[in-house]
Amino acid sequence: MKVLLTGATGLLGNAFAQSALRRGFEVLAVGFQKKPALPTPSRNFQIDLREEHALERLVFDHFPEVIVNAAAYSHPRAVAQAAPGMARMLNVEFPAKLAQYAHHIGARLYHLSTDMVFDGLKAPYRTTDDPHPLTEYGKLKLEGEKEVLKFGGYESTVLRVTMANGNSPEGNRSIHERLFYRWMNGETTELYTDEIRQPCLADNVGDLLAELCERPNLHGIFHWAGSDALSAHEIGRRIAAHFGLPETLVTQGEMPADGEHRRGDLSFVLDPLEGKVKTRPLPFDEQLSQLAVPPQCRAWYEAHSAKKLPPKRFVKGVDF
Fold first, then answer.
1. Which residue among 141, 158, 182, 308 has the highest number of C-beta atoms inside a 10 angstrom radius?
2. 53: buried, middle or exposed (CB in 10 Å: 19+, 13-18, 0-12)?
3. What is the pTM of this model?
4. Are 73 and 91 contacting, i.e. CB atoms less than 8 angstroms apart?
5. Which pLDDT score, from 0 to 100, does residue 41 have?
6. How confident is the model at residue 309 (pLDDT cuts 50, 70, 90)?
């Protein structure tokens, strides 16, 4: 199977690429800021999104059977701070183009979206529930979903996933990696007790996507996550405990009543997809067992993991 993968250098894109290669897929891996470094039989490409027809040429030169879009401005604060045109281009306009290309060549498109298309007020959410995003990131991702389903038609699938655990290629993208950087810099982090998320392991999402590529009868909108819904504070506390770090690195707080980063309870109902696939959602403890100390933080970790050092400064309401 020939698969075109965009966002191949990111956490979820790389996880899918590894799973796809294990299954014998031919992966055309696309990065935007840098060229991916996947082994054969993959082929790696770097494309400047400002070149209007670069991706179009790649699609029509290779005619993939499947397109997987893992490219996005995937961090809410980054979207809020990004140039508006760039955030919209990557999260809305780019998926729309991919859907048009996929429809034109008869390829199936799998587009990754987010739990943040919901407002956090009526969880757990089913795929049939009406989205109501509160953040700019969620609004753009919902627009992207609509464009994919409008232009891609029967060939398109939207997979909404939750916050991702895992070991990213550069060691700075997943939940625990971001926390490690803050802790290494002497920061104690306040995490909310009333922000409920359902973290998933990136490798598990990659396995699911690879399975879906082999199951053309499954299409539409699906939800995927880990099996445990936890508060942001509990997630941070358990990450610290897993690595033998003082749990005092994480303090409790409550979300502000409103604002760009308010989330609430964004947990998912995983049916009907869970009952139709072999890939299983993973409990949080099993996810933790797969995590490694980020390479850039290892020296700090080895020197301080057994010590309860006083924080140098305090960071409120950390964004995962």
1. 141
2. exposed
3. 0.92
4. yes
5. 79
6. very low
Instruction: Write out pLDDT tens, residues 222-231.
Output: 999 999 999 9
Q: Distance between CA 30 and CA 36 in Å, rounded?
A: 7
Could you say which of 73, 110, 137, 192 is catalytic? 137
Question: From CA 267, how far away is CA 274, in angstroms rounded?
Answer: 15
Cα separations in angstroms, 97 against 56, 102, 151: 9, 9, 8
Please indicate whether residue 137 is annotated as part of the active site: yes
Residues 6+ apart with CB under 8 A from 281: 200, 204, 224, 225, 226, 227, 270, 274
User: Chain-centre distance of CA 81, in angstroms?
Assistant: 19
Phi, psi torsion values for 54, nearest 5 degrees: -65, -50
pLDDT at 180: 96
| CA atoms lying within 13 Å on the CB side of residue 256 | 8
Q: Hey, which residues does 197 pair with through a beta bridge?
A: 230
